[in-house]
Amino acid sequence: MSEHLHWDPLLIQRYNRPGPRYTSYPTAVEFLPVESDQPEQDAYTQRDPNRPLSLYLHIPFCRHVCYYCGCNKIVTRDMDRALPYLDLLKQEIKAKHAMLKTADDGQLAPVEQLHLGGGTPTFLTDDQLRDLMDYLKALFRFSESDTADFSIEIDPRELRPGTLTLLREMGFNRVSYGVQDLNPKVQEAVNRVQPESMVRDVMSQARALGFRSINIDLIYGLPHQTLESFDATLSAIIELRPDRLSIFNYAHLPERFKPQRRINGDDLPPADEKLAILGRCITRLSEAGYHYVGMDHFALPEDELAVAQSRGELHRNFQGYTTHGNCDLLGFGISSISQIGDYYLQNRVTEATYAEALNADSLPTWKQRQVTTDDLIRRRVITELLCHLTLSYDQLDQEFTIESREYLADSLERLHPMRDDGLVDLTSNAIRITDKGRLLVRNACMAFDTYLQHHEQQRFSKAI
Ligand SMILES: C[S@@+](CC[C@H](N)C(=O)[O-])C[C@H]1O[C@@H](n2cnc3c(N)ncnc32)[C@H](O)[C@@H]1O
Ligand code: SF4
Predict the structure, then answer these.
(1) Which of 34, 266, 396, 459 has a CA 20 to 30 Å removed from the CA of 116?
(2) Is the beta carbon of 217 within 6 A of some atom in ligand 1?
């Protein structure tokens, strides 16, 4: 077991309750519907033009459906489906670009991070990918710094020969491969047959092309997974030595995600086996030298995420853990979320409503939230706990000119059961997540989430 993690299945089971992943605070469920373009325009007007930019483009198309999938995607084999979408995407990019003010040097602030996510961005043809990147590069100034991150999510089954080379030529330096599980029976049950040899091939191609960082996504809790079967998947993956690993927990919510209705609930591993799989992941990855960053993410110690964490420079936003917390995040495409100054803004989620807004020369914003000072204080606490496992009251006092121990008294009291279980240390200077509490850090964050407390109170009063 890692020197920084303590595995206690009974405690984990006891604290196991659904909760936010805190890629934002307030979380997206608190965003409010917009009635006009005004909030988005206000966000751009109030934005500090010197802040660098992080761009997220959502490419929703997939050629096949994976039955577990909870992403916002459009499943189609019709390649022409992407054409009108790309036109709309460019229209949105152009409209938002026109709202950006220039920085003190007279230019637009540089783009330090770009991420193409989905869906499956390589659903787009090579020409479409090139055209999209040319379009972006004509408008924005892409940073040439060594720390700039240009990344793309890739389904290994949807990678044409030559596409990786093209991506590298266009400046992408990170890839994230969706793998999920290598066991054939599991793959069949989720309709994602993807031989191990294919994963090996795409890994070695990316290495040969000099991608700086390769991430692999796995999921635990899929149908027919057993401790032994997932152990074998882990052995193969560890041998491939990705720089980062995301190990997501499969939550079976067929009433919410239609494709999941094709998964037979009886085929899912029972709760104790699922927990044992997670335990095995942690042991195996720690033994293989991976560092647990937090919230499903592992990285090799030399990876920038692990380094940033050790330096106290890690951030968390809609990109998950990131080293680019200094950027304003501009989202494009259906369901994408922007974080600009004090604003969170989310786009409409369906292709039809997204098109309707843009065709009416409006922005496709669906929801927004302007954060309050209280949100900022709590966001700081949550981010520090998730990223660095500790929060110094003095720092918070200085940053927000408050007496934080008093200000957060109610939330701190809610941490007492976790303190009594040895999961957090509450000293006179700081809150610290213990090694025993690392896998439950989200529960500690939930104590500071006033919206969650409010909803829970409402639910409680309804129940009685
Ligand atoms: C947009 S996909 C990645 C790119 C590409 N579409 C692919 O599947 O290879 C993002 C990731 O979300 C994860 N994911 C999707 N649905 C999930 C679910 N219901 N539970 C847990 N993880 C899920 C998968 O690990 C997947 O690789
Ligand atoms: S996991 Fe990836 S490829 Fe599969 S349906 Fe979801 S977005 Fe598409």
Answers:
(1) 34
(2) yes
According to the model, what pLDDT value does residue 189 have? 98
- The answer to whether residues 150 and 117 touch, using CB atoms and an 8 Å cutoff, is no
| pLDDT, tens only, 154-203 | 999 999 999 999 999 999 999 999 999 999 999 999 999 999 999 999 99
Note the pLDDT of residue 1: 42
Looking at all shown ligands, the one closest to residue 246's CA atom is 1
Count the Cβ atoms, other than its own, within 10 Å of residue 197.
8
Give the list of residues 6+ apart from residue 188 with CB closer than 8 angstroms, or none: none
pLDDT at residue number 462: 52
Low-confidence ranges of the chain (pLDDT < 50): 1, 463-464
Residue 366 pLDDT: 98
Q: What are phi and psi of 60, to 5 degrees?
A: -85, -5
Which of the following CATH numbers is that of domain 17-332: 3.80.30.20, 3.40.190.290, 3.40.50.460, 3.30.365.10? 3.80.30.20
Q: How far is the CA of 68 from the centre of ligand 2 (A)?
A: 9
Fold of 1-16+372-464: Arc Repressor Mutant, subunit A (1.10.10)
* Residue with the two structure tokens 């206000």: 42
